[in-house]
Amino acid sequence: MKKILKTVIFLAALTSFSANATTYDFSYTFNDSSVVNGTLSGDLSGSFVNNISDVHVFLNGTEFNGGSLFHAAWNTTTQTWDNTIGAIVSTNASLNNFLFSDADVPSDFNVSNYFYMINDPASGIGHETFATNFNNGDAALDNPTNTSWSLVKDPVQLPEPATYATLLAGLLLLGAARRRKG
């Protein structure tokens, strides 16, 4: 019994250290009724998503090509895109500062698709949202950004492997306890 209990505790501890990345759905409706939406993975901390990865964007229903997109942020000091600064994505549109593109800006400006939200009141840009798909000529711009931004947890996510492992460990513990009583 002690060996089983130790094994169960070890498995539960091991699985509790797994990654907690979650997929989020986002959308923004421009004043001209164009819609950009997509998904990204990351960890929500307060109103900000950290460790952003696996970004996918659609503009008016057409997915940006290039698979998972690069991300960067607007550097308010240099007034340029900066790929050394991680994208700042928030549940609150007025805090967003990101660029999602199909090329690594500013190392490679050969982009054909990109979506950005900038909040830099000190610059001439201010609060601006822009999306373009050069492949089909679709583009939309809002300056200032409106309040239609939405970022929510993807409701169709499967539980993480750690969840299943913890459940299995609990069932093993219950089985061991029942066996000991019987």
Low-confidence stretches are 15-19
Oligomeric category: single chain
User: How would you spell out the order of helices and strands?
Assistant: HEEEEEEEEEEEEH
Shape: elongated
Strand content: 35-45%
Structural class: alpha+beta
Number of helices: 2
Q: How many independent structural domains?
A: 2
Mean of all residue-level pLDDT scores: 85
Number of strands: 12
Biggest beta sheet summary: 6 strands, antiparallel
Overall radius of gyration: 22 Å
Kindly report how far apart the N and C termini lie.
13 Å
Description:
A hairpin with a 4-residue loop joins β5 (70-75) and β6 (80-82). The protein has 2 domains: 1-18 and 160-182; 19-157, no CATH class. Strands 1, 2, 3, 4, 7 and 12 form a 6-stranded antiparallel β-sheet that branches. A 6-stranded antiparallel β-sheet has the order 6-5-8-9-10-11, with no helix packed on it. It is built from 2 helices and 12 strands, in the order αββββββββββββα. α1 (2-15) runs antiparallel to α2 (161-181). Mean pLDDT is 85; it is low at 15-19. By secondary structure, the chain is α+β, with helices and mostly antiparallel strands.
